[in-house]
Amino acid sequence: MNDISDELLKTLMDDMRAVAAAEILPRFQAITSDSMRAKTAPDDVVTDADIGAEQALSRLLAERLPGIVVVGEEAVSEDRSILDRIGAYDLVAIIDPVDGTWNFAHGVPTFGSILAIVANGKTIAGIIHYPVMGDFIVARPGQGAWHVSADGSMSRLSVAAPGPLSDMHGFVPLHMFSPSLQAEMAPRLPRLSRTTTWRCSAWEYRMLTTGAMSFCLNAGIMPWDHAAGVLIHAEAGGYAALVSGEPYSPTLTEGFLLTAPDEASWEEIRRALLED
Fold first, then answer.
1. Residues 237-251: pLDDT tens digits?
2. What pTM was estimated for this model as a whole?
3. Between 48-64 and 6-19, two packed helices, what is the crossing angle to 10 degrees?
């Protein structure tokens, strides 16, 4: 498979909406100590909603695309070797069932569900769903990036216009970098207009692709966070690459990823934050 049809894209969106209604929204603002557990750190949590949504969407994907290999964030947390499937199989679905789980678990509505369909190592569909809002941002290669409202109406997405560095505002999760890099980067942040973090890639890509925010520097590049978003960002006119200059790929799991309005802005932001 080299592309996703309009019909299949709509079906996948309907499936994500149904899974959110069954597994995610009933648990929102109803989290208890029994339904939330820590993973790698006290603020890296998993809930029953994450597990239930990933399992439900995985079953639906197997029905829609027989033979597809599913790589889900929660499955990988139990067996990291599952990550290797992204580059080893022709057709792979990458799922982040509840992106922004910390927000979700603490009653904050800035969370989403992310699905990327990857063929031969390249993302051919990126779908991000916002259960509380009922809407989506989506893209397929060469077909633009779109906001799809809860009633199905569509509008084209476009990243922010390039501008002076002092006018740039974006996302920098400083806490995710090493202590030495934090010490180097923190004094440089005032070179930019404003920096923040929302603890949710789904919402950060929404802000980037609607032009509300200019850039994002990520310390982690796990595929469930970025495989869909990088495609949507590119189709909205943006530029993204690892700060090393290496192109982004869903098969990558290490490095720093910088997204910006265009290549010139990308280079200017990279120098401002990471070089003297």
1. 999 999 999 999 999
2. 0.94
3. 150
Structural domain harbouring 152:
6-156
Residue found by looking up tokens 């004094």 in the block:
187
What is the C-alpha to C-alpha distance for residues 94 and 24, in angstroms, rounded to an integer? 18
205-217 residues labelled b (16+ CB within 10 A) or e (exposed)? bbbbbbbebbbbb
* pLDDT tens per residue across span 186-217: 999 999 999 999 999 999 999 999 999 999 99
> What residues have CB less than 8 Å from 53, skipping those under 6 apart?
19, 20, 23, 24, 97, 98, 113
Q: Are residues 67 and 110 in the same domain?
A: yes
Is the domain of 126 the same as that of 170?
no
223 C-beta neighbours (distance < 10 Å), count: 27
For residues 257 and 219, the answer to whether their CB atoms sit within 8 Å is no
Which amino acid is it at 167? D
| Cα angle 107, 20, 56; round to 5 | 125
Cα 47 from Cα 24, distance rounded (Å): 10
